[in-house]
Write a structure and sequence with these properties.
Low-confidence stretches: none
CATH architecture: Sandwich
Number of helices: 6
Strand order of the largest sheet: 1-10-7-12-4-3-2
Oligomer: single chain
Order of helices and strands: HHEHEEHHEEEEEHEEEEE
Distance between the termini: 33 Å
Shape: globular
Radius of gyration: 18 Å
Structural class: alpha+beta
Mean pLDDT: 95
Amino acid sequence: MAADISLQHAPVSPEFFNKFVNDDFRLTDEQVAFFHENGYLSGVKILEDEQVEMLREELEKFFDSNHDGRDLWYEYHTNESATPDTVLFHALGAWRVGPGFHDILWAPAFVKAAEQLLDGQVRFWHDQLFCKPSNHGGVVAWHQDYSYWTRTKPMAHLTCWIGLDDADRDNGCVQYVPGSHKWDLLPITGLAGDMDAIQEVLTPEQWEQFQHPVPAELKKGEATFHHPLTVHGSFANCTDRPRRATVINAFRDGVCSDSDDVLLVGVPPIAKGAKMEGQFFPLLSKT
């Protein structure tokens, strides 16, 4: 059985972590203002090319459903799509299994940007892998992240989507509805399969705004950040290139559990009203 790296609340792989460039990672005032106005910010460099390659090597092992550490995932879907013709590999918990995916949580460019956008110290919530193989990679339907996270409060969350490949419209990059973070929370309409389902829950005014999504085209190693209410999704990968990504979900220190039930599969419950902290929700900011 593989060791659970979530017990370590600091980088564990010098050969990965030491490759971060020593630089000033602060977002500009203009970038922060853009995020608050539009609900997203794209084109933030997080990883160097050599780190991307190291993560790709770790990821390749995860595609084998019998890999060492299989029991440590919160969720694991070789294909979350309803059909084998549209594959969406989706898994939560890579930070517990792969040293690189663990250490990326402490990436200086991610942590500094998250502190600025959340206006405070940052804790880890959970990670995700979203991978679309070439030629038949499936969709991620339009949704708001917080609709899946209402078991926590207050809503002081942030999502960082990091490309492990160049991502563009053709291979299914993330697309955003600017300003949708100012909408109320929408009902869940499904994560994989139906790009049209969201129409059923939008007002006429929201539907009009929805007509103009913006694709966040990225180079590998670059990231987008988005607000927990920002409506986003991604279309199918119809190219001969893969579209692989890792996602870090974080929240401002002080967010509490809003449920006595299990928050993540395999994680002991945190009593309703108690602060989210401990082994599975490490503080990423420097104290």
